[in-house]
Amino acid sequence: MRYFIILIFSFGLIGCSGKRNVMQYAENQITTLASEAFYGRGYTANGLQLAENYIALEFQKLQLKPVYPSYRQKVSYPVNIIENSSLKINGDEKSFGFEYLISPQAETETFIAETFNVSHLLLDHSIGDEKDMFKLLALNKGNIPVLDFRHVNTDLNKTLYALSAYLDQEKTLYDFPAIIHIQEKLPHSIASEQDNFLIIQVKEDIPDASLIEINNQSRLEKNFTSHNLVGKISGKNSDNAIFITAHYDHLGLVNNTVFYGANDNASGMSMLLNLAKYFKHHQPNYDLYFYALTGEEAGLQGAIEAVENLPVSQNQIKFLINLDIVGTGEEGIQVVNGSIFNKEFNLLQTINSEKNLLPQIKTRGEACNSDHCPFYEKGISCFFIYTLGGNSAYHDPLDKAETLSLKAYFELFQLLTEFIQKL
Predict the structure, then answer these.
(1) What DSSP string runs through 213-230?
(2) Angle formed by the axes of helices 268-281 and 47-61, to 10°?
(3) Is the pTM of this model over 0.85?
């Protein structure tokens, strides 16, 4: 009896120690990758290259077998790089990312112009009444139309976007140097091309005849080169393979604003590394391939390259798990493709119920919104998993390591390790 009690106590200590190690490693990786030292893991200040080198070193420390020389699979793609941007409204300098954004396709451009409001015509008149609209546009050639997207219903929102597209199409006719969108949130993004029509996004009210001064420097890199990092752990059976993917790139640095990308996707990268660390000491049933993917924010570029140049035949890939935004979990997780791959989703649910891990596992159908998509379109069975609840910062400078609760991180880690072994 005494031996039995001691044995239970010992297992409890091992469990606590295991959780502590997983969480410490996760916090260290997220804090490091989402620090100012990596400049937002983007296309300025060499941030993406710094992140690549760091993750390659982590792969080496974990003793993953390199699938390509030094783990690196070359990926080349076009990207528009916003190097500097300045906006003044009535002489007041605004902060990029916090108070304004410019469209990611923006070219280098400098101008000064006044604003005029267009949205009120849609609010005060029927949508079909266009006479006043065209009169207002004609009277304001060379100025900047302002469209307010805040607090509008779905139909009006669609109409505003249609009007914005029309103004873009007729920019030469009206000589508009830009459009201003007033929005509640300012999500930044990356583009792979340039456009000579600028959209400025702001949060604050813009009175008519406000003076806008813009100075933007952008550079289109037509053949930017980065790398996927791919490591392998051999399984007991090498006839099949399981792929685990997470992207390490983010939105980078503009002016002095860092887009840290803690949840998106230092959290997913940390989970991938934690899984690699675990399976290095617990041999999996099948070969595991760990893909740290580049260029996700620029259009899933790393995933596209990966699926076109697989290290194994496609029919050997048993399943793929893509991890993107897993730093919260107060409300459980969402599984994209869960309603398509029912057998695997039911396995997830069974493990979760038996172990009492997550408050819920929600399912949805296909969605081409992360790196799983090119694999899925190629016919490879896959899930994209992200956490629900908690901090809602997305593609903005507030997505910092200290804002993440990691509420369900360890429970998701437990779920994934058992799921991978039971596939």
Answers:
(1) EEEEEEEEEEEEEEEEEE
(2) 20
(3) yes
